[in-house]
Specification:
Involved in formation of the rod shape of the cell. May also contribute to regulation of formation of penicillin-binding proteins. The chain is mostly helical. The protein is built from 7 helices and no strands. The longest helix has 26 residues.
């Protein structure tokens, strides 16, 4: 198989994996610790190959996630578009941050995502979530260095083959 085809399959495969891993059920006590996988993978690809990740792609992935998750249509699409817009806007700076600063930036982006979700759900008439609802962005930020290094290593290995 040609190198561009393998690269495209790897890109699409990781995004499909992210959306499907979002659907894995966890026991109720562990549910607040579940990171928002589509956002983490889109963040990685927006930082590493900004030419592939666009607002349209973020919107389509968000709509697919909305349909699969059964939430308000467009909720995740809007959140992912906002996140990808911010990352693409500041991509040249974020790419060269040390890992600890990049992790803090990812935490800020994930907290921004939670605030947007809170606003949307409040306008939809939902009750305010419990305090444990805010744990997920911190878990995602803690996983960021490991996810980034794993994805970067796998991407480099595929490029060398």
């Amino acid at each position: 198989m040609s190198r561009p085809r393998v690269s495209l399959l790897w890109f699409v495969g990781t995004l499909v994996f992210a959306v499907l891993s979002m659907l894995i059920p966890l026991p109720a006590p562990l549910q607040p610790f579940k990171p928002y996988w589509p956002a983490l993978f889109l963040l990685y690809w927006a930082l590493e190959s900004g030419d592939r990740v666009t607002l349209g792609l973020a919107f389509v992935i968000g709509l697919c996630a909305d349909l699969l998750d059964g939430v308000l249509l467009g909720e995740q699409a809007m959140r992912l578009c906002a996140m990808v817009f911010i990352v693409l806007r500041f991509r040249s700076r974020l790419r060269f941050f040390p890992m600890w600063q990049q992790t803090l930036a990812v935490l800020a982006l994930l907290l921004n995502d939670r605030v947007l979700l809170l606003i949307v759900r409040t306008f939809a008439g939902d009750a305010l979530p419990p305090a444990t609802w805010w744990i997920s962005p911190f878990v995602g930020a803690a996983l960021w260095p490991f996810l980034f290094l794993l994805m970067d290593d796998l991407r480099m290995r595929l490029r060398l083959q």
